Amino acid sequence: MTKQQLIEAIAVGTECDKKNIPEILDSLLTAVTNAIAGGDRVDLRGFGSFVPKETKARQGRNPQTGEPIQIAAKKTVAFKPAKDLELRLGMQESAKAADAAE
């Protein structure tokens, strides 16, 4: 789904004027981005959580030459879906089936 498709879906779902939705969506995304960049976790009940993470520096290998290289530490974000979303996507059933198979 593209941003434009999301705007259209919001317009249909809320019956709001389509002209205002891009500004609202941009504001939402900016608030979420700023919170994560500031080290805060963003919880959207029923959808999931965006959690900022830091990966440590580590030793790696250049896949072409096999030469050891240093991979720098970096900041990233992880998404953990809410149980409601997992249920809707069937993720919990497949995880339970995988656990039962072990």
Uncertain runs:
none
Cα-atom radius of gyration: 20 Å
Portion in helices: 40-55%
Give the topology string: H per helix, E per strand. HHEEEEEHH
Q: How many helical elements?
A: 4
How is the topology of this model organized?
Elements: H1 3-14, H2 21-37, E1 42-44, E2 48-55, E3 58-61, E4 68-71, E5 74-81, H3 83-89, H4 91-101
Antiparallel strand pairs: 1-2, 2-5, 3-4
Keywords:
2 domains, 102 residues, HU Protein, Chain A, two-stranded antiparallel ribbon, 4 helices, alpha+beta, 46% helix, 3-stranded antiparallel β-sheet, 5 strands
Question: Can you put this structure into words, describing what you see?
Answer:
The chain has 102 residues and is of the alpha+beta class. The protein folds into two domains: 39 residues; 62 residues, IHF-like DNA-binding proteins (HU Protein, Chain A, Irregular), CATH 4.10.520.10. It has a three-stranded antiparallel sheet with strand order 1-2-5. It is extended, with a radius of gyration of 20 Å. The two termini are 36 Å apart. 0% of the residues are buried. The model has no long low-confidence stretch (mean pLDDT 90).
Give a brief description.
With 102 residues, the chain is an alpha+beta fold. It has helices spanning 3-14, 21-37, 83-89, 91-101; strands spanning 42-44, 48-55, 58-61, 68-71, 74-81.
